[in-house]
Amino acid sequence: MNTTLRTDLTVGDICAGFEFSAAEGKGLYGWSGRLTIQPEYQRHYLYAERGGSRERAVVESVLRGYPIGLLYFNRVGDAYEVLDGQQRITSLGRFTKELFPVEDAQGNLHYFESLSAVQREKFLSTPLTIYICAGTEDEIKSWYKTINIAGLALNRQEISNAIYSGAFVTAAKKIFSNSTSPRLHLWRNYVRGDVKRQEILLTALEWVVKSSDDSAVETYMSAHRNDGDASELEAYFERVIDWAQKTFPRVHDDMCGLDWGRLYETYHEKIFDVAELAAQVDKLYADDAVTDKRGIFEYVLSGGELTKLLHVRYFEPSTIKTVYARQTREAELAGKSNCPMCAAGKGSNAKRIWKRDDMDADHVTAWSAGGETSAANCQMLCRHHNRLKGNA
User: Fold this and answer.
1) Which residues are within 8 A (CB) of 100 and not within 5 positions of it... i.e. 6 or more apart?
2) Mapping DSSP to helix (H, G, I), strand (E, B) and coil, where does residue 59 land?
3) Helix (H, G, I), strand (E, B) or coil at 165
4) Distance CA 73, CA 82 (A)
5) DSSP label at 367?
6) What is the per-residue pLDDT for 153?
7) Which of 43, 115, 125, 310 would bridge 119 by S-S if both were Cys, CB 3.0 to 4.6 A apart?
8) Is residue 130 within 8 Å of 72, Cβ to Cβ?
């Protein structure tokens, strides 16, 4: 890859003809139309978030004469696109378009036009240090992955979007990276993530490839790179969301972020009584023994077979101590083992008195059958028999 250093361009040159799309949340063009500020492989504009402190910092640095770092442009024929620096350039351009103010030393807010003529001239005439790069697509994309602003590194999907940029990424971002989409309200019941940082897009890709492995997602993006749309990805994602919504019509906060793609593949062919599922969910939410509410949904889908998903609370130490003492006292009086299952047998352990550390607390009536995690439903079994009985 070849690079050429330019120090003759100013903030005013780069901000000339600046355009910003509020709907898409990105800078479009600068340098009188010659510069594409956010090509498809770039992330969304993020400096306006968190109250806009980062975009104000960029402008204030220029006004105070501080350097804002190197910028990298990629030459594409007679035009250019920002390889690194789109957050800073967009911040400068947004300021010239009166989209946010900065604060002076006295705490007063100033939009661009309310600056003094001297300050405006100082701002626009500030020189920038820009490297113009030229090379193959692979070289440009490889370089792009390594030159990120400190503290705002590319995430996994932003890197993938850069590597496999093309018609498919463009189409997919319009669906899954659109912060104004009315469908987001529904999706956020089931999917976590920052739409601007491609995290919902990543979830959609993981669902359609049925894997969270990087290579599986990248293989899919590579195979579909030149597709004119992302209809397959969109249809599958919507199918999963629709199934989740119909299976559990009542929304719970704990639904968000579950692996609904895997749950759909595992259970969507089963026929459920939706009202019965809802009743089971309500009952489990009300059960203090269930310490992981997020596991409730797969537990009821599994027919109550996956108790471990719920992290059912074990018996309290005080309960174990009390039950062990009572059981042992009664066993000694009867001349039998303090493990009821040993006592019922005829082997060498039929009269054995086990130490407390050699026994486990067990539900007399299984928790999965409605038994409570209480002293009245607790019995002590030797570890051998507890394992044979299972942990339901």
Assistant:
1) 48, 52, 55, 56, 94, 111
2) helix
3) coil
4) 5
5) G
6) 62
7) 115
8) yes
Structure tokens at 350: 């039929």
> Taking a C-beta distance cutoff of 8 angstroms, is the pair 46, 38 a contact?
no
Alpha-carbon dihedral sign for residues 290, 295, 300, 303? negative
Q: For residue range 322-354, what is the model confidence (pLDDT) as tens digits?
A: 999 999 999 999 999 999 999 998 888 999 999
Question: Treating both helix axes as pointing N-terminal to C-terminal, what angle do 199-209 and 214-223 enclose, rounded to 10 degrees?
Answer: 90
User: How far is residue 32's CA from residue 26's CA, in Å, rounded to a whole number?
Assistant: 17
**Look-up of token digits 């640095």:** 61
Range(s) of the chain covered by CATH 1.10.30: 317-389
Q: pTM above the 0.90 mark?
A: no
Strand partners, 297: none
Contact between 295 and 311 (Cβ < 8 Å): yes
First CA to last CA distance, the chain = 63
Q: Count other Cβ atoms within 10 Å, centred on residue 297.
A: 24
What topology is assigned to 317-389 in CATH?
Answer: DNA Binding (I), subunit A (1.10.30)
